Amino acid sequence: MLLLRKPPANDAARMELLAANERMERELRREISESSRGARTELTHTLGTFQDAIVRQGAETTRTQNIQIDAFAQQLTLLQKTLSDTLSLQLQNLGESNARRMNEVRATLDSQLTQLQQTNAAKLDEMRKTVDEKLQTTLETRLGESFKQVADRLEQVHKGLGEMQTLAQGVGDLQRVLTNVKTRGMFGEVQLEALLEQVLTHEQYAKQVETKPRSNQRVDFAIRFPGRSADGTPVWLPIDAKFPRDDYERLLDAQDRADPAAADIAARALEARIRTEAKSISESYLCPPQTTDFAILFLPIESLYAEVLRRPGLMDSLQRDYRVTLAGPTTLLAMLNSLHMGFRTLALEQQASEVWKVLGAVKTEFERYGEWVARIKEQVQKASDTLDKADSRTKMMRRALKVVEALPEAQAQALLPQVAEGDDAAE
Question: With bands split at pLDDT 50, 70 and 90, how would you rate the model's confidence at 227?
Answer without folding.
Answer: low
